[in-house]
Amino acid sequence: MFITQDIIVKIFFKEKIIKNRILIPHNRSVILAPTHRSRWDGLILTMAMGRRVTKKDCRFMVTNSEMTGIQGWFLKRLGCFSINQISPSFSVLRYAVNLIVKKRQLVVFPEGRINKYGKKIALKGGLFRLAKLATKKITNITIIPIGIAYSEVNPKLRSKVSLCFGEPLIVNDQMDLSISEFNEKLHEKMKTAENEALKNVGR
Fold first, then answer.
1. CATH code of 154's domain
2. 73 burial via Cβ count (<10 Å: 0-12, 13-18, 19+)
3. Which residues form the Phospholipid/glycerol acyltransferase domain (predicted)?
4. What are phi and psi of 88, to 5 degrees?
5. Distance CA 134, CA 165 (A)
6. Per-residue pLDDT averaged across 105-119, rounded?
7. What's the whole-model pTM score?
8. CB-CB neighbours of 56 under 10 Å
């Protein structure tokens, strides 16, 4: 935390703007659903919603390809764990569900990969399926859409960054939305939050 937040993020970004922050009570289960525009996203999200703010660490679900080499070593120590998007293992799903049930703070990037220019892509169905699995053990899960934006498409030294929170979605066992309907709602809320973040950094 000291190295990443007090040194790296503080030096690299000249301005960090957080808007509409939503803090969920500790007795509620939450999944953070941010846009994915850069490899900086994890550090920025940790700054806004990490242990120092929520008293909970962010646990990031990432793809297998992101957990290789030096990057993988670093990400693992930041609280990341990998999943095979095509054929997720039972053990990984169980671990993710347990994080939700134990009211930890799970982060899932619904776009499934870095989408540098913010083009509309079909959101992955994993977040919805994971939340529905967890509702077998817990009543309600709060999904928080988040928009992250940088003053440059490829963040540079002394860039600006903004993170904005969207209106939460509640998932429970009575929800009758299909995956596609849920993803459309989630995408709209993520995009609205991102548009506000883009204005904050002058884009």
1. 3.40.1130.10
2. exposed
3. 30-151
4. -65, 140
5. 23
6. 93
7. 0.93
8. 16
